[in-house]
Amino acid sequence: MDKFRETFVTIAKLISSFMEGSDLLVEVEEEVSYHEPFPVLGVKPSDLVYYVSPKRANFSAVDGSSKSLISSGGIVSVAAVAVTGISVPLRGVYPHFTGLMGLEMKAPFMALAPSTKGRNNVLLASLDYIMLRSIDGTPLDVSLGVSRVETELRSSLETEAISHAEGTPLLDGPLLPSYSSLPSEVRRELVRRRYQKLPKGAVGIVKRIDRSKLLVEALNPYVKELEARFGLSNVSFLSDEALVSNLVRRLAVPPFKPMAFGPVIYEPHGVRVYAYYLALPLHPHVRKFSIIRVESLTLREGIVDEVASLPLGTNGVPYPIAYADKVAREVRGGLVKALKLSLESFGIGVSYAGNMAVMTS
């Protein structure tokens, strides 16, 4: 048994002391909050839409996955992160007791929030792999809620993994997430750490834009120009996805090519971010597109050319992101399974009757 596996068994044994008397473990995944600052259009309305010329670049995708086990003894949150690339499909995972190539990291991948305030364990507190306090110093307990515990753990792990990307980091989700459900001090610290780790060339890929209205709101001052040029009004659309889809239907002709929209400029947490919308055809002669938002800390149109060069996964997302998401979920799933088995071996009963899953970002 390698050192990492021995450490995991020790952790599971110590965690079992917090779960004494528990007879139910419910799995819960992190819930996502959506909140975006007021945006402005970064180009003239006449320059809103343009075709893209794919240009190869060296990207490394970073994505994490998390889940929590809840019982009467408290909350145990676990997280995993994967870094994938172009020339080397899998650069590494963390934690890496699964046999896959590991990332040289030493960061918490578990968080423990007991049901009793002040409950602690000296051995657990001495382990680098366990998070027992919030970023603001507050001891973790169930009163903080699953969302806060899990968000802090997973976000910290993803941020730490950015430095292990080779070439341009490609992040799953906004470059600077809103963290709107977290206390302001925790939110500021998570953003500060993320911003410090982000190189200027970092790229964020937002794949779920059906609840985003950045582009819709940025076009509010240009209603007349939109109606004259495209024959539509942005105010009639409830999301960016609906607006871009409508524009693509009106403008795209076969053989279909990648189309870009924007940029839109917005300032999450006071940091300027440039957001482009990219419509990627799944086939040159079939009217079916994958629509994503591409975020950058710098104004450079070439970023959409580089992202458009990436192959797409089966879900229409650039393959490095899709693969990082898949691997992170598998590692996290293995971690949860191993933890359940270990807890059962120490006498903690597990029930699947109350399982509940919520999509992560």
Give a quick summary of the entry.
Helix content is 30%, strand content 23%. It has 361 residues and is an alpha+beta fold.
* Fraction of residues in H or I helices: 25-40%
Number of strands: 13
Major β-sheet annotation: 13 strands, mixed
Helix-strand string: HEEEEEEEHEHEHEHHHEEEHH
The portion of residues forming beta strands comes to: 15-25%
Stretches with pLDDT under 50, minimum 5 residues: 21-26, 30-34, 350-361
- pLDDT averaged over residues: 85
Number of helices: 9
Distance between the termini: 34 Å
Structural class: alpha+beta
Shape annotation: elongated
The whole-angstrom Rg is 22 Å
Number of domains: 1
What layout of secondary structure does this protein have?
Layout: H1 3-18, E1 26-28, E2 40-41, E3 49-51, E4 59-71, E5 74-85, E6 90-94, E7 110-114, H2 122-125, E8 130-131, H3 146-161, E9 168-172, H4 184-197, E10 203-206, H5 214-218, H6 223-230, H7 240-251, E11 259-266, E12 273-283, E13 286-296, H8 302-308, H9 319-345
Parallel strand pairs: 4-9, 7-8, 9-10
Antiparallel strand pairs: 1-4, 2-11, 3-11, 4-5, 5-6, 5-7, 10-13, 11-12, 12-13
Helix pairs in contact: 3-4
Describe the structure in your own words.
This protein has helices at 3-18, 122-125, 146-161, 184-197, 214-218, 223-230, 240-251, 302-308, 319-345, and strands spanning 26-28, 40-41, 49-51, 59-71, 74-85, 90-94, 110-114, 130-131, 168-172, 203-206, 259-266, 273-283, 286-296. The longest helix has 27 residues, at 319-345. 30% of the residues lie in helices and 23% in strands. The protein contains 9 helices and 13 strands. Helix 3 packs parallel to helix 4. The protein has one domain (3-345). It starts with a helix and ends in a 16-residue tail after the last helix. The chain is of the alpha+beta class. Strands 1, 2, 3, 4, 5, 6, 7, 8, 9, 10, 11, 12 and 13 form a 13-stranded mixed β-sheet that branches. The protein is elongated and about 70 Å long.
